[in-house]
Amino acid sequence: MKHLLDKLNSTKLDNRIRLGVMSMLMVNDWVGFGAIKEMLGLTDGNLASHIKVLEKEGYIDLKKEFIGRKPQTSYTATIAGRKAFDDHLKALEALLKGG
């Protein structure tokens, strides 16, 4: 059973917030910072720290633009992020099925 746990992405995706962010990005092309924050019920600082982890790992890309006079930051899952998320889900499914 331990070999099933080894396949989970324990360094980045076992955290509920990072998993929530990646879940949103898997089903949407681009999601704004404010939308992620609101959907997950987070503070700016809390979300920013988790975004940094995902960005550093190469799981997400960002774009910054101005809408009117307000800056807007949006995020998308990278190919590596999509693969890591899919692998993590497959490992969870295998764990639930007992191997």
The CATH architecture can be named as Orthogonal Bundle
Instruction: Tell me the span between the first and last alpha carbons.
Output: 7 Å
* Largest sheet: number of strands, sense, barrel closure: 3 strands, antiparallel
Q: Enumerate how many helices there are, as a single number.
A: 5
- Which percent bin holds the helix content? 55-70%
Strand order of the largest sheet: 1-3-2
Q: How many domains make up the 3D coordinates?
A: 1
The percentage of residues in β strands lies in: 15-25%
Shape: elongated
Query: What is the assigned CATH homologous superfamily?
Result: Winged helix-like DNA-binding domain superfamily/Winged helix DNA-binding domain
Q: Roughly how many Å is the radius of gyration?
A: 15 Å
Low-confidence residue ranges: none
**What is the number of strand segments?**
3
Instruction: Write the CATH fold name.
Output: Arc Repressor Mutant, subunit A
Assign the CATH class: Mainly Alpha
Summarize model confidence as the mean pLDDT.
Answer: 89
Q: State the secondary-structure class.
A: alpha+beta
